[in-house]
Design a protein that fits this description.
The complex is a heterodimer of chains A (388) and B (357).
Chain A: H1 26-46, H2 49-72, H3 79-102, H4 127-140, H5 171-180, H6 182-189, H7 193-197, H8 208-233, H9 238-264, H10 282-291, E1 295-297, H11 300-305, H12 312-317, H13 326-340, E2 346-348, H14 349-362
Parallel strand pairs in A: 1-2
Chain B: H1 2-8, H2 11-16, H3 23-29, E1 38-49, E2 57-64, E3 76-83, E4 86-93, E5 105-110, H4 116-124, E6 130-133, E7 149-155, H5 159-171, E8 177-183, H6 193-202, E9 206-211, H7 222-228, E10 236-240, H8 243-253, E11 259-262, E12 277-280, E13 285-288, H9 294-300, E14 318-328, E15 334-335, E16 340-343, E17 347-355
Classes of the chains: A mainly alpha (388), B alpha/beta (357).
Chain lengths: 388, 357
Amino acid sequence: MTVSIERPPVKAATDSELSSTYTLTAEQLDAFGDEMDAIRQRVIADLGDEDAAYIRKVVKYQRGFEVAGRVMFYLPPLWPAAVASLSVSKILDNMEIGHNVMHGQYDWMGDPALNSRMFDWDTMAPAENWKYGHNYMHHTYTNIVGKDRDIGYGILRMDEDQKWRPYYLGNPVYAFLLMVFFEWGVALHDLEADEILAGRRHLWKGENAPIFRRLRKKMGKQILKDYVLFPLLTGPFFLSTLAGNAVANLIRNIWTFNIIFCGHFPAGVATFSIEETENESRGQWYYRQLLGSANITGGKLMHVMSGNLSHQIEHHLFPDIPARRYPEISVEVQEICERYGLQYNKGSLPVQLWSVARKIFRLALPTKAEAATEPQTRSASSAPVRAA
Amino acid sequence: MALVNTLLRSRAVAALTSPHGVDRYLELVNPMWAAHDVRGRLIDRTLEVDVPGAPPVATLTIQPTGNWAGHQAGQHVQLGVEIAGTRTTRVFSVSSAASGRGDQFTITLRANPDGIVSSYLAEEAPLGTILHLSQAQGEFTLPEQMPEHVLMISGGSGITPLMSMLRTLQRRTHRGRVTFLHYAQSPEHQIFRDELAQVATSGYGIDLHLVYPETGGRFFTPMELERLVPGFRDVDTFAVGPAGLIEKVQAAYEGSDKLRVEYFKAPAVSNGSTEGDITFTRTGTSAANSGTTLLEQAEAAGLTPAFGCRMGICFSCTATKKEGTVRNVLTGETSSLPDEDIRICVSTPEGDCAVEL
């Protein structure tokens, strides 16, 4: 399976060649792409002191919460506060700092501590492995069924176009387990477990050798730190610290799982086929990113704690622009969507979560041949959803 | 103090602060606390040359962190400073006499009108600014066993590493002979003017020749050097200066192994065209610039660089551009400074270009 996205960006195909997924004409797609490029250039030209100060401030808070959390384990009555503090630290580290820094959003700062090639995060998955699967595979082939390994992560059925098998009856159970063990799931995802089970890959040999080696090393460090050294340092409170660290990791797992599942799986989010995205133009690429993502509405705290993945749409349109810029960009993107009559999928956290949960349960069962009774949940590859 | 340092650099602390490392915590408390990184605080600045219409030359005094290992005369240091949120790193020669662990040192630099870093450091950086340093680097140093006679030749701001050598020799009360030949535009443009005047009157064994071609001094020629230092090809010589001077000096020495030279890379100027050669420095391959992206050109040249999305979003292909100008095809931005990280899948070279691939 080789799908290459050509560059320099090719022009959109002629209207007759465009798949029915696209509700815009080829000319409109080009114009839409140009408008997105214009936003990108303007924001990039404007990056400076404030963006640098912002990420440094977040780092300072994260390290503060981390140190406070570790220290409070010495005072047993403060155990809940210690766990909360450490959870916040891990969430900030993974989301607003780690995910975004490793996207290269702050590479322009020239600071090795915030550079996508140097940074590693406080979770099991080694940066090097994750960047390949995420920045390259997921962000390039977003929501292309058969290409984007983040559709169901190789274990869940999250799209009608994934053929149903009896295995998928366990969809809700697998999703629950993935939530609880999310950091392990993310780490193992890079080994391509489905390929291993299918017998096409060896767990630790061949293609997987360097990935497995990095994974073993990083997991060792994370386990040593959270489950051996810090508990030992608190002496008589060994067990309570150990449990606290485990709970903090669990809270982080649940939160990040939920945020991430709201990014591409709520109802109405479009998926695409390999055929219709071949020789995709830049406009089409933006179009796919826009319709393949969903936002979560909420306040400032919600945005920071989700690493601004609450602006998943803007993140997918501009993955290398500092996330703190997404709220301002979203105003413009929504205006553009309105002009082109494109859907802009957003909803509050409970609304999006409910929508995702329903999908997890619904897709556990075989899809009816005629899914026309529920138009808002159809994938765009069968019929595009047009905004009013 | 030594105990604290040993502890901070220990494997136990590394394990506890994984994956970020102990310095990422220390710096938040005090930027001058560091176990591994070397940093410095700008504590003084004096103008060496302040002629209207000419770029100023300034000497900066830097207090490094305790893990600065010191420097040998003639070495340089990488210095990074943050301007408008972006840290930019340049190489500067140390101008003060050889230093020990944690000792203050100075760099002397000319404000390059085209360069943001040198003008910022020479004119604007407030005292107290934190600078990101490397350890001192470079093989252009005085030999362990000092020869009887040393010849130093410099032009313009190339005097700085030689000044470090001269100062070190004076402090060591070197007993041999030093011939110091320096070219500057005019007496007003002379860096270290007062100190050199003092050396001229009281420096024991130092033969000082300051030449100002603008006010009638004679340019460098082998004949002129032969007049000053008969048999110069057999004298241990250190030369630093602009490319024009260095080329003449190298020609004059006819391949003699007594000559040692040092010069730094200057930012390339874009010629706006695609004509030129692309050099892939790691593999030593080079090819004519075809105008396509560097990734495509590298592949056409038979290289297999890492890549991902091929559209500038995933950063898998990031490589260091050593020299030349490249244009980002997505934003139209150009990068002309040496040693900048670029995404080769969306960068087209303009003119000559060297990339670490």
